[in-house]
Amino acid sequence: MIMRRRFIFILSLFLHLFSSCTGDVIVPAEPQLVVEGWIDDGGFPVVMLSTTIPVGDEEIKMDDLKQYIVNWGKVTVSDGEKEVVLTGMRSSSYFPPYIYTTTKIRGEAGKTYRLVAEYDNIIATAQTTIPPRAEIESIESDYTDGKYTIMATIKDNPNEHNYYKFFIKVLGRDSSYLSSDFAIFDDSNYSNPIKVPVEIGNSFFYSAEKKNYELSEEDGFWIKVAQVDSVAYDFWDDYKNMVELGVNPFIKYSGGIRSNISGGLGYWIGYGATEYYCAPYNHATPVKINK
Predict the structure, then answer these.
(1) Which residue, 130, 99, 96, is CA-closest to 117?
(2) Which of 197, 222, 235, 261 is least crowded, fewest Cβ atoms below 10 Å from its Cβ?
(3) Is residue 160 within 8 Å of residue 142, measured between CB atoms?
(4) How far is 252 from 256, CA to CA, in rounded Å?
Protein backbone atom coordinates (compact mmCIF):
# COMPACT_ATOMS: atom_id res chain seq x y z
CA MET A 1 0.00 0.00 0.00
CA ILE A 2 1.32 3.41 -0.94
CA MET A 3 0.98 5.95 1.86
CA ARG A 4 -0.63 9.11 0.54
CA ARG A 5 0.96 11.66 2.78
CA ARG A 6 4.41 12.88 3.66
CA PHE A 7 6.30 11.68 6.69
CA ILE A 8 9.30 13.98 6.82
CA PHE A 9 11.01 12.29 9.67
CA ILE A 10 11.01 8.81 8.20
CA LEU A 11 14.02 10.21 6.33
CA SER A 12 15.87 11.37 9.40
CA LEU A 13 14.92 8.25 11.33
CA PHE A 14 16.83 6.03 8.98
CA LEU A 15 19.71 8.47 8.77
CA HIS A 16 19.90 8.69 12.56
CA LEU A 17 20.02 4.94 12.88
CA PHE A 18 22.56 4.52 10.11
CA SER A 19 24.92 6.57 12.24
CA SER A 20 24.97 3.60 14.62
CA CYS A 21 26.51 1.38 11.95
CA THR A 22 30.18 0.36 12.08
CA GLY A 23 31.34 -1.32 8.90
CA ASP A 24 28.90 -4.16 8.23
CA VAL A 25 27.80 -4.36 11.87
CA ILE A 26 24.60 -2.63 12.98
CA VAL A 27 24.73 -1.59 16.60
CA PRO A 28 21.24 -1.70 18.17
CA ALA A 29 20.07 1.72 19.31
CA GLU A 30 17.56 2.57 21.98
CA PRO A 31 14.25 3.80 20.48
CA GLN A 32 13.77 7.54 20.54
CA LEU A 33 10.65 9.66 20.36
CA VAL A 34 10.25 11.60 17.11
CA VAL A 35 8.23 14.82 17.15
CA GLU A 36 6.94 16.64 14.08
CA GLY A 37 4.98 19.67 15.24
CA TRP A 38 4.09 23.22 14.34
CA ILE A 39 1.83 26.12 15.25
CA ASP A 40 0.93 28.93 12.83
CA ASP A 41 0.07 32.50 13.72
CA GLY A 42 -3.72 32.32 13.95
CA GLY A 43 -3.70 28.53 13.78
CA PHE A 44 -3.92 25.58 16.15
CA PRO A 45 -1.03 23.30 17.11
CA VAL A 46 -0.55 20.09 15.13
CA VAL A 47 1.81 17.40 16.41
CA MET A 48 2.65 13.92 15.14
CA LEU A 49 4.60 11.38 17.18
CA SER A 50 6.48 8.25 16.20
CA THR A 51 9.44 6.22 17.40
CA THR A 52 12.69 5.53 15.61
CA ILE A 53 12.79 2.45 13.39
CA PRO A 54 15.33 -0.31 14.09
CA VAL A 55 17.57 -1.16 11.15
CA GLY A 56 18.14 -4.85 10.42
CA ASP A 57 18.64 -7.30 7.59
CA GLU A 58 14.91 -7.71 6.91
CA GLU A 59 13.11 -5.47 4.46
CA ILE A 60 10.80 -2.90 6.05
CA LYS A 61 7.47 -2.65 4.27
CA MET A 62 5.10 0.32 4.33
CA ASP A 63 2.55 -1.51 6.48
CA ASP A 64 5.29 -2.25 9.03
CA LEU A 65 5.69 1.47 9.69
CA LYS A 66 2.32 1.61 11.43
CA GLN A 67 3.73 0.01 14.56
CA TYR A 68 6.08 2.97 15.03
CA ILE A 69 3.28 5.56 15.04
CA VAL A 70 2.52 6.74 18.59
CA ASN A 71 -1.25 6.76 19.15
CA TRP A 72 -1.19 6.75 22.96
CA GLY A 73 1.20 9.55 23.79
CA LYS A 74 0.53 12.71 25.76
CA VAL A 75 1.26 16.10 24.23
CA THR A 76 1.01 19.34 26.19
CA VAL A 77 1.38 22.86 24.79
CA SER A 78 1.62 26.01 26.92
CA ASP A 79 1.97 29.70 26.04
CA GLY A 80 2.99 31.04 29.44
CA GLU A 81 -0.62 31.81 30.35
CA LYS A 82 -2.40 28.52 29.90
CA GLU A 83 -1.48 24.88 29.40
CA VAL A 84 -3.50 22.49 27.20
CA VAL A 85 -3.29 18.73 26.71
CA LEU A 86 -3.79 18.03 23.00
CA THR A 87 -6.35 15.50 21.79
CA GLY A 88 -5.19 12.55 19.69
CA MET A 89 -7.21 11.69 16.59
CA ARG A 90 -6.90 9.91 13.27
CA SER A 91 -6.42 12.11 10.21
CA SER A 92 -6.01 10.85 6.65
CA SER A 93 -4.60 14.23 5.64
CA TYR A 94 -1.21 13.45 7.18
CA PHE A 95 1.31 10.67 7.48
CA PRO A 96 1.54 9.40 10.12
CA PRO A 97 -2.29 9.41 9.90
CA TYR A 98 -2.63 10.31 13.57
CA ILE A 99 -2.28 13.82 14.99
CA TYR A 100 -2.49 15.60 18.33
CA THR A 101 -4.25 18.96 18.23
CA THR A 102 -6.64 21.31 20.04
CA THR A 103 -8.80 24.36 19.45
CA LYS A 104 -8.19 25.61 23.00
CA ILE A 105 -4.93 27.36 22.19
CA ARG A 106 -4.24 29.44 19.10
CA GLY A 107 -0.93 30.70 17.75
CA GLU A 108 -0.08 34.37 18.10
CA ALA A 109 2.94 36.16 16.65
CA GLY A 110 5.48 37.12 19.29
CA LYS A 111 4.40 34.45 21.78
CA THR A 112 6.56 31.51 22.85
CA TYR A 113 5.03 28.04 22.94
CA ARG A 114 6.46 25.18 24.97
CA LEU A 115 5.77 21.59 23.99
CA VAL A 116 6.09 18.47 26.15
CA ALA A 117 5.60 15.07 24.49
CA GLU A 118 5.48 11.92 26.62
CA TYR A 119 5.39 8.26 25.67
CA ASP A 120 6.62 5.02 27.27
CA ASN A 121 8.72 6.80 29.94
CA ILE A 122 10.27 9.07 27.29
CA ILE A 123 9.82 12.84 27.67
CA ALA A 124 10.73 15.21 24.82
CA THR A 125 10.52 18.98 25.16
CA ALA A 126 10.93 22.03 22.91
CA GLN A 127 9.89 25.63 22.60
CA THR A 128 9.36 27.99 19.70
CA THR A 129 8.41 31.62 19.16
CA ILE A 130 6.14 32.61 16.28
CA PRO A 131 7.67 35.38 14.14
CA PRO A 132 5.60 38.10 12.41
CA ARG A 133 3.69 36.95 9.36
CA ALA A 134 5.37 36.83 5.97
CA GLU A 135 3.38 38.11 3.00
CA ILE A 136 3.54 37.71 -0.76
CA GLU A 137 3.70 40.95 -2.75
CA SER A 138 3.06 39.40 -6.15
CA ILE A 139 3.07 36.14 -8.10
CA GLU A 140 4.27 35.70 -11.67
CA SER A 141 4.15 32.67 -13.95
CA ASP A 142 6.41 31.68 -16.81
CA TYR A 143 6.33 28.90 -19.38
CA THR A 144 9.76 28.26 -20.86
CA ASP A 145 11.17 25.16 -22.56
CA GLY A 146 8.10 23.14 -21.70
CA LYS A 147 8.24 23.93 -17.96
CA TYR A 148 5.68 26.01 -16.08
CA THR A 149 7.22 28.06 -13.26
CA ILE A 150 5.72 30.12 -10.44
CA MET A 151 7.73 33.03 -9.02
CA ALA A 152 6.71 34.76 -5.78
CA THR A 153 7.93 38.13 -4.55
CA ILE A 154 8.08 38.48 -0.74
CA LYS A 155 7.64 41.65 1.28
CA ASP A 156 10.91 41.80 3.23
CA ASN A 157 12.20 44.30 5.77
CA PRO A 158 15.75 45.15 4.61
CA ASN A 159 16.67 46.28 8.13
CA GLU A 160 16.08 42.79 9.60
CA HIS A 161 17.65 39.39 9.11
CA ASN A 162 14.72 37.15 8.19
CA TYR A 163 14.13 33.57 7.08
CA TYR A 164 11.28 32.28 4.92
CA LYS A 165 9.71 28.93 4.07
CA PHE A 166 7.17 28.00 1.37
CA PHE A 167 4.57 25.22 1.39
CA ILE A 168 2.18 24.28 -1.42
CA LYS A 169 -1.02 22.27 -1.76
CA VAL A 170 -2.36 21.42 -5.23
CA LEU A 171 -6.11 21.11 -5.69
CA GLY A 172 -7.12 17.52 -6.43
CA ARG A 173 -3.65 16.17 -5.62
CA ASP A 174 -2.74 17.07 -2.03
CA SER A 175 -4.88 16.89 1.11
CA SER A 176 -2.50 19.00 3.20
CA TYR A 177 0.43 21.34 2.65
CA LEU A 178 3.69 19.83 1.42
CA SER A 179 7.08 21.43 1.72
CA SER A 180 7.78 23.25 -1.53
CA ASP A 181 10.94 21.70 -2.94
CA PHE A 182 14.04 23.56 -1.75
CA ALA A 183 11.98 26.60 -0.67
CA ILE A 184 13.85 27.76 2.45
CA PHE A 185 15.43 31.20 2.17
CA ASP A 186 17.74 33.49 4.13
CA ASP A 187 17.13 37.09 3.02
CA SER A 188 20.82 37.93 3.39
CA ASN A 189 21.41 35.89 0.22
CA TYR A 190 18.94 37.92 -1.87
CA SER A 191 18.51 41.48 -3.02
CA ASN A 192 15.31 43.29 -2.06
CA PRO A 193 12.60 42.60 -3.15
CA ILE A 194 13.07 38.86 -2.79
CA LYS A 195 11.81 36.91 -5.81
CA VAL A 196 11.95 33.12 -5.52
CA PRO A 197 10.53 30.09 -7.37
CA VAL A 198 7.74 28.09 -5.71
CA GLU A 199 8.20 24.45 -6.69
CA ILE A 200 5.60 21.72 -6.36
CA GLY A 201 5.86 19.66 -3.16
CA ASN A 202 6.34 15.90 -3.09
CA SER A 203 6.10 13.02 -0.67
CA PHE A 204 8.36 10.00 -0.45
CA PHE A 205 5.16 7.95 -0.16
CA TYR A 206 3.51 9.27 -3.32
CA SER A 207 2.92 7.00 -6.29
CA ALA A 208 5.07 7.56 -9.39
CA GLU A 209 2.13 9.32 -11.04
CA LYS A 210 1.89 11.89 -8.27
CA LYS A 211 5.66 12.30 -7.98
CA ASN A 212 5.96 13.02 -11.70
CA TYR A 213 3.10 15.51 -11.61
CA GLU A 214 4.01 18.90 -13.06
CA LEU A 215 2.29 22.15 -12.18
CA SER A 216 0.39 23.83 -15.01
CA GLU A 217 -1.75 26.90 -15.55
CA GLU A 218 -4.81 24.63 -15.28
CA ASP A 219 -4.08 23.87 -11.62
CA GLY A 220 -5.58 25.56 -8.62
CA PHE A 221 -3.28 25.59 -5.59
CA TRP A 222 -2.69 27.07 -2.18
CA ILE A 223 0.61 28.66 -1.17
CA LYS A 224 1.66 29.15 2.44
CA VAL A 225 4.58 31.49 2.98
CA ALA A 226 6.00 31.63 6.49
CA GLN A 227 8.58 33.64 8.32
CA VAL A 228 10.57 31.31 10.57
CA ASP A 229 13.33 31.67 13.14
CA SER A 230 16.93 30.55 12.72
CA VAL A 231 16.24 27.18 14.38
CA ALA A 232 13.54 26.33 11.84
CA TYR A 233 15.79 27.58 9.05
CA ASP A 234 18.56 25.24 10.20
CA PHE A 235 16.18 22.26 10.19
CA TRP A 236 14.72 22.92 6.75
CA ASP A 237 18.10 23.80 5.26
CA ASP A 238 19.55 20.52 6.56
CA TYR A 239 16.51 18.68 5.21
CA LYS A 240 16.97 20.33 1.80
CA ASN A 241 20.64 19.35 1.75
CA MET A 242 19.76 15.80 2.72
CA VAL A 243 17.27 15.50 -0.13
CA GLU A 244 19.74 16.98 -2.60
CA LEU A 245 22.66 14.79 -1.52
CA GLY A 246 21.04 11.72 -0.04
CA VAL A 247 18.09 11.41 -2.46
CA ASN A 248 16.26 8.83 -0.33
CA PRO A 249 16.21 7.57 3.27
CA PHE A 250 18.32 4.50 2.53
CA ILE A 251 21.39 6.51 1.51
CA LYS A 252 23.58 7.76 4.32
CA TYR A 253 23.82 11.52 4.72
CA SER A 254 26.74 12.47 6.95
CA GLY A 255 25.51 16.00 7.67
CA GLY A 256 22.64 15.06 9.95
CA ILE A 257 19.59 17.20 10.66
CA ARG A 258 19.65 19.76 13.44
CA SER A 259 16.76 19.54 15.88
CA ASN A 260 15.32 21.71 18.65
CA ILE A 261 13.81 18.71 20.46
CA SER A 262 15.41 17.93 23.83
CA GLY A 263 15.09 14.25 24.73
CA GLY A 264 14.10 13.19 21.20
CA LEU A 265 14.32 13.93 17.50
CA GLY A 266 12.32 16.16 15.19
CA TYR A 267 11.09 19.73 15.36
CA TRP A 268 8.57 22.07 16.96
CA ILE A 269 8.24 25.21 14.82
CA GLY A 270 6.26 28.43 15.02
CA TYR A 271 5.29 29.77 11.60
CA GLY A 272 4.44 33.42 10.91
CA ALA A 273 2.38 32.18 7.99
CA THR A 274 0.01 33.67 5.42
CA GLU A 275 -1.96 31.50 3.01
CA TYR A 276 -3.10 32.31 -0.52
CA TYR A 277 -5.23 30.55 -3.10
CA CYS A 278 -4.33 30.77 -6.79
CA ALA A 279 -7.24 29.83 -9.05
CA PRO A 280 -6.76 27.95 -12.34
CA TYR A 281 -5.67 30.26 -15.19
CA ASN A 282 -5.43 33.14 -12.71
CA HIS A 283 -2.26 32.49 -10.72
CA ALA A 284 -1.15 36.13 -10.87
CA THR A 285 -4.08 37.17 -8.67
CA PRO A 286 -3.65 35.28 -5.38
CA VAL A 287 -6.45 35.50 -2.85
CA LYS A 288 -5.34 35.87 0.77
CA ILE A 289 -7.00 33.46 3.19
CA ASN A 290 -7.85 35.17 6.46
CA LYS A 291 -7.51 33.29 9.72
Answers:
(1) 99
(2) 197
(3) no
(4) 9
